[in-house]
TrEMBL record, chain B:
Protein name: ParA family protein
Every AAA domain range: 3-162
Species of origin: Solirubrobacter deserti
InterPro entries on file: AAA_dom, DNA_Partitioning_ATPase, P-loop_NTPase
UniProt cross-references to Gene3D superfamilies, sorted A to Z: P-loop containing nucleotide triphosphate hydrolases
Pfam families associated with the record: AAA_31
Length: 491, 239
């Protein structure tokens, strides 16, 4: 049903707003209610990006279209501090699970609101448009929302004209949720862990690197509290990606830092190591439902003891990771690193010169490594190639703004095609090995071991299939056309 | 798929419309999208919802699929409750249904699957309309006045019933102070499967015509309104 929202005059409360509407429309008021409205989104604003608003008021969770304010789904639910897709009522889960994935919904704004539902009546005293007046205690202006009633769609035009022309109320352009989050000091779009950097090609490499390192430190800082509070698995993941990217750039730009870099490289290596077990266990647990479903139906329950083992191990890994991240040593290392990169003198080399040089070198290295791989090469060679591919991927991400997008984007796409294939190959091997390693932990459960055996067999088959794709993917990546592009734009 | 519930009795004036309007309103209050189709040419429930008793092109075109039911539906004052209005031409509905190879009421209802519940407020009598209703409905909600003659209602209904629809009888307009009512309810309750909730004979129910609203909306705490709420709970348990 069509919905229009207009903004009430500054300082208008429910009785005054109702009185001015009643001068022009035949309205009947329902009971006014007051309550707390809580808005939810993921840390990185996935609902915002998907054009959705999730709001809790009274005893109900309501999913709205951000643009129109139309209700998409609603269900009774308590106001929780955190909601995973599995915690949501069915009516909402179907719509939200694909957007949220592994992320948790968190309260992003809380507002005390006062609402007055009104019915616009025709000559038979029948409701032909529903109105709702809303005011909030957070200093934002109130709103009036008009919703069409089925079979009386023409009436909403009349109401819209009254609101816009007779009463001169401007149409609301910013959703209430955005105003509420902004009033609470947040960003309605959420907190991104993406790099999104714009660099100056003529800038000294050391200063540009400081910008990249600075942003990566920011991402680490942003994701640290959620990691320590164990809000959802994505905080740790984004934190680790930032650490890995930092290490990559440290390697690629090591020429810029003649002294003391090794200390920081060791520290970041340690940070990656102390968070590794927890991330591995997160991945196993995230994949668990899919693995379970991939088994023949009567074997599915057999796998459950494995989940118990994974969960127990995760509790231990979380404790260890928390201890390491909270340690004085970690705080000091991050602060000193920040100090180190921002206090560098400008280097002689420009960033575009150094970046182009590194991109060309790493690309050529990959081409050389890939060409040496044939059907008999050990898995190790493919893993090594993937590692170098990651370095190239990060370089292209850090320095994307230095090159024309029509060059960088297809380059990244070709690289990604190869990396995904190498990743599938390696993941299957890692998964098969991980299940083997876990076998002794479930030795009292023979049926669980059998189910794990079925999975290992499948992983090995998929590993073979992924390997078979390598030659085709690599051929595109190392083609003459791609080599020429690299030579022309990065050489 | 919607769940189709028809309020039906061969006799008129037994509280069919009152049951349909109040139960449908309760269903919508519970958060379920609900539609009430007023099949009675007199249009009593349409009147109660303050909607004009008008179907574009009349009932014949609607059941023959010439008029799109979707475009004829009206929202009511209750959120989540819509109405497919009555039309005076429904009095000739039998003609429109005669000779059809398929169940034409069913064909109108089926595409309206956005509704969790579809209530049919049926005209009294045994006719092609009621036969179509029996087939389309998942359950027949049959109000029974505890009077000697109406006790035959359930027997007669079972004689003509041509479908698997559940028959859920309940006492309507009952007066527990009357000895005859108490005795008949006891007797019928032994012989037939009748729901436990009893809708009392009440001036509040009669006020619906003056208020032009569902009793459960304008007097939700009245005895009769509470009885409808209990009845709705009991019906859902039986579905």
């Amino acid at each position: 049903m069509e919905v229009v929202t207009h903004v009430l005059p500054e300082g208008a409360d429910l009785p005054s707003a109702k009185a001015s509407l009643a001068e022009h429309l035949d309205v009947r008021a329902d009971r006014a209610t007051s309550g707390t409205t809580t808005f939810y989104d993921t840390f990185d604003g996935r609902l915002h990006a998907a054009g959705l608003t999730l709001r809790h008021s009274g005893t109900e969770l309501v999913l709205l279209d951000r643009e129109t304010g139309a209700t998409l789904a609603s269900a009774a639910a308590p106001a929780a501090k955190r909601l995973f897709d599995r915690d949501l009522p069915e009516a909402l889960r179907a719509r939200l699970a694909p957007e949220m994935e592994m992320r948790a919904l968190l309260p992003v704004a809380k507002v005390r609101t006062h609402r007055l539902p009104l019915a616009v009546l025709n000559g038979d005293a029948k409701t032909v448009v529903r109105l709702e007046l809303t005011t909030a205690d957070n200093g934002t202006r109130g709103r009036v929302t008009a919703t069409a009633v089925r079979g009386y769609e023409a009436e909403i035009e009349r109401v819209r004209a009254t609101l816009a022309e007779t009463l001169a109320l401007p149409e609301a352009t910013v959703p209430l949720v955005d105003e509420a989050i902004a009033a609470a000091g947040g960003d309605p779009a959420g907190t991104s862990s993406k790099l999104a950097l714009t660099l100056d090609p003529d800038e000294p490499a050391s200063l540009a690197a400081a910008t990249v390192f600075g942003r990566l430190l920011e991402v680490i800082d942003l994701n640290l509290p959620g990691t320590l509070d164990d809000v959802d698995s994505e905080f740790l993941h984004d934190l680790r990606v930032a650490i890995r990217r930092t290490r990559s750039l440290q390697r690629q730009f090591k020429g810029v830092y003649p002294e003391r870099l090794q200390h920081f490289r060791d520290e970041f290596k340690r940070l990656q190591a102390v968070t590794g077990d927890l991330r591995d266990l997160d991945v196993y647990l995230l994949d668990f439902p899919e693995l379970r479903d991939s088994l023949p139906e009567k074997m599915r329950a057999d796998l459950d003891p494995l989940r118990d083992v994974l969960e127990q191990r995760r509790v231990k890994a979380l404790t260890a990771t928390r201890r390491a991240l909270r340690a004085q040593r970690t705080g000091d290392a991050l602060a000193e690193w920040n100090e180190f990169v921002t206090s560098r003198r400008p280097s002689d080399r420009t960033v575009s010169d150094l970046a182009s040089h590194r991109i060309t070198r790493v690309y050529r290295k990959m081409v050389k490594m890939g060409r040496a791989i044939d059907d008999d090469s050990p898995a190790y060679d493919l893993h090594e190639l993937r590692k170098v591919g990651k370095e190239l991927r990060y370089l292209l991400e850090f320095f994307a703004s230095l090159y024309p997008p029509e060059i960088v984007k297809p380059f990244v796409k070709t690289l990604k095609g190869l990396q995904d294939q190498l990743g599938r190959f390696q993941d299957r091997e890692v998964q098969a090995n991980a299940l083997r390693d876990l076998a002794p932990a479930v030795k009292g459960h023979p049926f669980t071991l059998m189910a794990m055996g079925v999975l290992i067999e499948r992983f090995m088959q998929e590993e073979i299939a992924a390997r078979a794709e390598f030659a085709d993917r690599f051929a595109v990546f190392a083609s003459k056309a791609q080599r020429d592009v690299v030579k022309e734009h990065f050489g | 798929m919607s769940q189709v519930l028809a309020t039906y009795n061969i006799k008129g004036g037994v509280g069919k419309t009152s049951a349909a309007v109040n139960l449908a309103t309760l269903a919508a209050h519970g958060g379920d999208q609900t539609l009430l189709w007023d099949l009675d040419p007199q249009g009593a429930s349409t009147y109660l919802f303050r909607v004009k008793p008008k179907i574009k092109g009349g009932g014949a075109k609607l059941v023959r699929g010439k008029t799109d039911a979707d475009g004829q539906i009206k929202g009511t004052d209750t959120e989540g409750l819509d109405l497919l209005p009555a039309d005076f031409s429904y009095r000739h509905m039998d003609l429109a249904l005669d000779g059809a190879k398929t169940n034409r009421l069913d064909r109108v209802i089926k595409p309206l699957s956005e509704y969790r519940y579809v209530f049919l407020d049926c005209p009294p009598s045994i006719s092609l309309v009621s036969e179509n209703v029996f087939e389309a409905a998942d359950a027949l909600l049959v109000p029974i006045i505890p009077a000697t003659l109406s006790s035959r209602t359930l027997d007669q209904l079972h004689e003509v019933l041509n479908s698997d629809a559940k028959v859920l009888g309940f006492f309507s307009m009952a007066d527990r102070r009357k000895k005859l009512h108490r005795e008949l309810m006891e007797e019928l309750g032994r012989e037939h499967d009748v729901l436990e909730t009893v809708i009392p004979n009440s001036a509040d129910v009669e006020r619906m015509g003056a208020e032009r609203a569902a009793l459960v909306d304008f007097a939700p705490r009245s005895r009769a309104a509470r009885a409808y709420a209990d009845l709705w709970t009991e019906i859902r348990e039986r579905l």
